[in-house]
């Protein structure tokens, strides 16, 4: 009986977490499980297309040799499969009507997706940021 109670509680917790992440919409401002040292980072939901969610990320610290300062603090567009936002433990509690401009990055992504050279991220946000940082460091 004790194990069934624990299982049911865990199942209900997962349903609540999934429900919170599935009701996201454009303009939501959300926290997520961040990388170390980026605790104030937030995502803004730019666009929701079925199971693909387009986000921008504020207050990150991505090492970028192409940047004047060597650091990028904002990413204007990243597409994710919705289930990986759920795995990123997002919590949306604010809303904005001022969606950051992302059309340039979105259009580039659409073209690459049509060619088969791009797809939404299939990993939590913090892992995608690590991957982006590694890719940028190789561009030296």
Structure description:
- With 140 residues, the chain is of the alpha+beta class.
- It has one domain (2-137).
- It is 38% helix and 29% strand.
- The protein contains 4 helices and 5 strands, in the order αββββαβαα.
- The protein has helices at 2-22, 82-87, 103-115, 125-137, and strands at residues 28-31, 42-49, 52-63, 71-81, 91-95.
- Strands 4-3-2-1-5 form a 5-stranded antiparallel sheet.
- Strand 3 and strand 4 (71-81) form a beta hairpin.
- It is globular, with a radius of gyration of 17 Å.
- It starts with a helix and ends with a helix.
Global Rg: 17 Å
Low-confidence stretches: 3-20
* Helix-strand pattern: HEEEEHEHH
Task: Give the structural class.
Answer: alpha+beta
Shape: globular
Q: What is the number of helices? A: 4
Q: How many domain modules?
A: 1
**Main β-sheet: number of strands, strand sense, barrel status?**
5 strands, antiparallel
Q: What descriptors fit this protein?
A:
single chain, about 140 residues, alpha+beta, 5-stranded antiparallel sheet, about 40% helix, globular
Summarize the structure.
The protein has 140 residues and is an alpha+beta fold. The chain has helices at residues 2-22, 82-87, 103-115, 125-137; strands spanning 28-31, 42-49, 52-63, 71-81, 91-95. The chain has a five-stranded antiparallel β-sheet with strand order 4-3-2-1-5.
What is the fold's blueprint, element by element?
Elements lengths: L1 H21 L5 E4 L10 E8 L2 E12 L7 E11 H6 L3 E5 L7 H13 L9 H13 L3
Antiparallel strand pairs: 1-2, 1-5, 2-3, 3-4
């Amino acid at each position: 009986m004790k194990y069934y109670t624990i299982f049911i509680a865990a199942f209900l917790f997962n349903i609540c977490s999934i429900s919170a992440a599935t009701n996201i919409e454009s303009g939501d401002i959300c926290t997520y499980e961040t990388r170390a040292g980026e605790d104030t980072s937030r995502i803004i939901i730019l666009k929701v297309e079925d199971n693909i969610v387009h986000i921008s990320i504020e207050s990150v610290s991505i090492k970028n040799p192409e940047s004047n300062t060597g650091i990028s603090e904002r990413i204007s567009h990243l597409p994710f499969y919705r289930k990986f936002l759920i795995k990123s433990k997002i919590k949306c509690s604010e809303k904005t009507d001022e969606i950051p401009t992302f059309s340039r990055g979105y259009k580039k992504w659409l073209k690459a997706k049509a060619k088969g050279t791009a797809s939404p991220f299939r990993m939590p946000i913090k892992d995608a940021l690590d991957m982006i940082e590694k890719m940028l460091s190789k561009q030296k």
